[in-house]
Specification:
single chain, 249 residues, alpha+beta, Peroxidase, domain 1, two-stranded antiparallel ribbon, 4 strands
């Protein structure tokens, strides 16, 4: 089984009820958007990392919206009370996947970028099409995304310890950080408490929202300016820097 091989259907990643969108700030940190959605759904992810449990059940339990935090803000250590080992579990599984195939690190970082660039870091990039309605994964720039199954494998591992607690959006954010560390980049604290989206944004992703591989300099600057009001200097620094530690804005 190739870690980044052809897509395979069947894996499940949980969506959280009453999710709030989180957006990247120009300072490189994470801020909270006031927009929220009330919805719940399951989503399919590709690759073949995920496996059913011993009972053959491939479903997860939803977090209770009544007991989940009502705050839309992010904090350090969001899971300290309900799942204190969450971040270490994610790190451990990312290391395991990386040692099996080092290419997974780049795949996870790119997946996180493509998720955050469209309506914030809300795991909407993981959504599968429903009823013929296209999802972000159908958008041109996203059709070559890899690592979806890696996120599924991490989610399954965390679910075994803390059912219905850790969002896929937070897993993406933590896994991207851990991937950067594994390839020689610096570590940094990650704010957590994101809520997963139940809505996908195909037209935003396909209509120039994400710069395609053949994007011109002008197209790239325009995309970053529209998404986060990034300046030319900031955009060049973000795209040209080997790691966050080398950024000079």
């Amino acid at each position: 089984m190739s870690l980044l091989g052809p897509p395979a259907r069947g894996a499940i990643c949980l969506l959280v009820v009453s999710s709030s969108i989180v957006v990247l700030s120009t300072a490189g940190g994470l801020g909270s958007d006031a927009t929220s959605r009330s919805a719940a759904a399951y989503l399919s992810v590709d690759d073949d990392y995920g496996e059913e449990d011993e009972s053959g059940d491939s479903s997860f339990s939803f977090p209770d919206p009544e007991t989940s935090s009502a705050s839309t803000g992010l904090v350090f250590g969001f899971y300290d009370d309900k799942c204190p080992d969450a971040e270490e579990m994610v790190s451990s599984m990312v290391r395991k996947l990386y040692h099996a195939d080092p290419n997974v690190a780049a795949a996870l970082v790119r997946l996180f970028f493509h998720d955050c660039f469209i309506h914030g870091c809300d795991a909407s990039v993981l959504l599968d099409r429903v009823g013929g309605q296209r999802s972000e994964r159908d958008a041109g720039p996203n059709q070559s995304l890899r690592g979806l199954g890696a996120v599924e494998a991490i989610k399954r591992g965390v679910e075994k310890a803390c059912p219905g607690t850790v969002s896929c959006a937070d897993i993406l954010a933590l896994a991207a950080r851990d991937s950067l560390v594994l390839v020689g980049g610096p570590t940094y604290p990650v704010l957590t408490g994101r809520r997963d989206s139940a809505q996908s944004f195909y037209y935003d992703a396909d209509g120039g929202g994400i710069p395609p591989p053949n994007a011109t300099y002008a197209m790239t600057l325009d995309a970053f300016a529209r998404r986060g009001q990034f300046t030319e200097r900031e955009t060049v620094a973000l795209l040209g820097s080997p790691s966050p530690d080398d950024l000079t804005l």
